[in-house]
Amino acid sequence: MTLDLLTLPRLGALRARGEGWQARYLVDRAHNVLLDHLVTGGLVAVLLWIVTTGLVLAIGTARARAAPTTAEFVVRTGALGTIVAHVVESQVGIVTPMPLVLFWVAAALCTLPPWSELRERSAAPVPRRAWWLRVGAPVAVAVLLVAWLETSWLFGSVAYAEGVLSVIAGHLDDAYQKFQRSRSLAPWLALPGEAMAETALRMAGRESDPSRRLDVLRDADRTLGALRGKVTGATYWRLSAQVAFAEVRSGDSSKVGASLEAFDQAARFRPGNAQLLAQWAWALLEARDPVRARATAVQAVNAAGEGRDAWLGWAILARAARELGDEAAAREASSRARGLAPAEARRILDALIP
Q1: Using CA atoms, how far apart are residues 113 and 282, in angstroms rounded to an integer?
Q2: pTM (predicted TM-score)
């Protein structure tokens, strides 16, 4: 899937395999409307759904019982049955647009005033101009608003998808511009901004000019700063920590405190992430705190186990142990780090434990 590269760090993957096929699921719905609302909107959304559905059923039942004619009773009872069936189905399935439209149509039929009142209202003369003002103008405004939102969303999604494809192809500058366009079209979404910061980190890693690298990182820092208050999840704090620490590594020592704070927040969301813990330990070394750096590096290597990703944790552990005067532990950790580090990490490894 085209979103695989950027979504995997955030969501993880669940693989499926059968005879002659294989698949990877990145995101799935909860198959329960209450859990869906809880995840996407929190307790407020769940309470609003319960209150709305309950009111529709209560009002519909009351008006069906008070229906003066058989026809009105049958229509209101059928609409109530439709609503109940929808509610039951939504507890084990995914709510799609068409059943949702049917739900609201049935809710309207249930909660309509008595038909006798509607006949009296329809018999009263309504000036043509007032009809347009009451109905036409609000409908036109609503249509224009929905069209604008949907069009912005569509073009923003297209720009984001093009940015992902550019990242996969290795065209980071082009990807950054696409994500920037996606963010301008859908500024209420956090994902394009986070993608901009992620791409900027990769661009900075390839940049040989220190001043240019710092400029790219500061742009990423400003992008993440604009997201503060809108989103505070694991991805946001991880990116904030990595960008701030990259700025420290590029010569801006004033970002040490911000980096440590962001690493602390990110680790609360992902306490067992070996890579995150190793980077946090590295930032603690830069902050001249080898005691905490050593303790955090131990957590990182324990979380990584025997995997090759443990090389950075071992390298930080070796450096911290050396600064604390424990040469035996430093030699052992250095040996483990050099045995696990890939070829492309040799330059970083030599800088950490020369």
Answers
A1: 68
A2: 0.61
